[in-house]
Amino acid sequence: MDISLSEFYKAIHREHGEFDEILFATIGVSIIDGLEYLNCQDIVHRDVKPANIMVNKNGAVKLCDFGESRLRFKDEHFYANFNETPAGTLYYWPPERFSGQPVAGVASDVWSLGITLLEVGLGHVPFIDNFGNLIEDHVKLKSMIEDFDAKLIISKLNKDYEDATRTFLHLCLLPAPQRPSTFGRLQRSWYYSNTKEYVKSDDEVAKAFATIAKQLVSN
């Protein structure tokens, strides 16, 4: 049995009050690898969020729910109707989805990845009111996404998170023209390369992740 990343991060925050940065990075690079694999198959997921990412008892991270996915080059209508189709979940939409600008599907998934990872680190969706309640009004949510201050929200992460982590998140949440439009570009970032090398060279990281995952999945 697997557990969703949504359930996973909530359990970690509930038990420890924070989400370990190494665990955060390990999950992040695993998601990037999965999305880049899809990209190489010319597939855009279009609904990246914690509920659509699964963790099994061995600590393997897997993407799921491809109901909104599209073939990037083989679907001739993809770019024409991307803005108009109500694909994905509003909380993870990039700002350009609301403005009618042309949308590159992969860049949209990159934004969704950034919101997903930010949510994991914070312990909640980053769109909440002053009382900690999730914004459900679509007009208010649209306004918050369009005016999203990534630097401000990222600053609310655990103070012990490294600047490299914050910089990587900011890269995922840049405005559309500057945001990476391929996951290959994210894989070429220092943050990704350093994390992959660290996890590869330290078996204890993978073992610790698997132990935590096994415990949570079993529960």
TrEMBL record:
- Residue ranges annotated as coiled coil are none
One GO biological process term is:
stress-activated MAPK cascade
Return the InterPro entries for the record. Kinase-like_dom_sf, Prot_kinase_dom, Ser/Thr_kinase_AS
UniProt-listed SMART domains: S_TKc
Q: Which domain of life is it from?
A: Eukaryota
What general EC class does the enzyme of this chain belong to?
transferase
Q: Name one Pfam family in it.
A: Pkinase
Key words, A-Z: ATP-binding, Kinase, Nucleotide-binding, Transferase
| Family under the similarity heading | Belongs to the protein kinase superfamily. STE Ser/Thr protein kinase family. MAP kinase kinase subfamily.
Q: What is this protein called?
A: mitogen-activated protein kinase kinase
Organism name: Acrobeloides nanus
